[in-house]
Amino acid sequence: EVLIPSPGVPPGIEPIARAAAPGVALVSELDFAFSRCTVPVIAVTGTNGKTTTTELIAALLRACGFRVVLAGNNALPFSGALLNAAPVDYVVLEISSYQLELTREFHPWIGAILNVTSDHLARHTTIERYAAEKAKLFARQTAQEFAIVNADDPVCAALGAHGPAQRRAFRPGGRVAEGLWL
Fold first, then answer.
1. Cβ neighbours of residue 37 closer than 8 Å, sequence gap 6 or more
2. Cross-strand bridge partners of residue 149
3. Residue 155: how many CB atoms within 10 A of its CB?
4. Half-sphere exposure of residue 72, counting CA atoms within 13 Å on the CB side?
5. CB 112 within 8 A of CB 43
6. Virtual CA dihedral for 136, 140, 143, 149, nearest 10 degrees?
7. Do residues 127 and 116 lie in contact, with contact meaning Cβ atoms separated by under 8 Å?
8. Is it the case that residue 9 has pLDDT exceeding 80?
9. pLDDT digits (tens, 9 = 90+) for 24-44
10. pLDDT band at residue 124, thresholds of 50, 70 and 90?
C-alpha cells in the first residue's frame, strides 16, 4: 500500500516506478514520520553546515533543560527517532535535498536554509532544481511557523520570501530588519 524509498535512491528510477504501481502510495520518509510526530520540529537544510548547525541547536535546547532528539540526514532517521521510548520536547532534523524530493506534507515549526551552492547537480541537474528541492522546506509552513534564511545568500533569501510563514533572516555581516546578525 505504501512505498517509502530511501532518500539516497532517486525516486524516478525504473525499479521505484515499477514498485509504485497504481494503488501504491510513494511517500517520503519525512512525511511518514512527520504524520506521526507530536512535538515541534526544527529542521535545517543547506549545502554546507547542516550537521554543525543542528548539533548546536540540539545542544542549546538541552542546555535550556529540554529533551531533544537529533535526527534526519545523520545516523538516526526521523522515523527511527520516533521509535525512541524516551519522551522528547523537540525533534531537530538535518535535512538533505534528497529527503525533501518526495515531501507533500512536511512542514517544520522552524525551518532554516543556510546556503545553496552548486552541489548534487548529478541528481538535480541544475542549481534551480536543487534550490527548488531545498525550498520545499518552507512550502507548507503556516503563519505560526518560521522560515529562517541566510540574507547574504541570494538563492536562500529568495526561497524564504514566499508563503505565510514568519520570515526571519540571519547575516554574518550587516544588520537585518527581522532576524540576527553578527
1. 78, 82, 91
2. 113, 169
3. 19
4. 27
5. yes
6. 0
7. yes
8. yes
9. 888 999 999 999 999 999 999
10. low
pLDDT of residue 61: 98
Helix (H) or strand (E) holding 26: strand 25-26
**On the CB side of 141, how many CA atoms lie within 13 Å of its CA?**
29
Task: Please give the grid coordinates belonging to residue 176.
Answer: 537585518
Angstrom CA distances, 174 to 2, 13, 18, 76, 139, stand at 48, 45, 51, 36, 28
The x, y and z cell numbers of residue 172, run together, are 554574518
- State the pLDDT at residue 123: 58
Q: For residue 157, count CB atoms less than 10 angstroms from its CB and return exposed for 0-12, middle for 13-18, buried for 19 or more.
A: middle
Q: pLDDT (tens digit, 9 = 90+) per residue, 53-97?
A: 999 999 999 999 999 999 998 889 999 998 877 899 999 999 998
163: cell is 508563503
- Does residue 170 carry a pLDDT above 60? yes
Nine cell digits for residue 26: 510513494
- Listed in order, strand segments (DSSP E) in 95-176 are 110-113, 146-150, 166-171
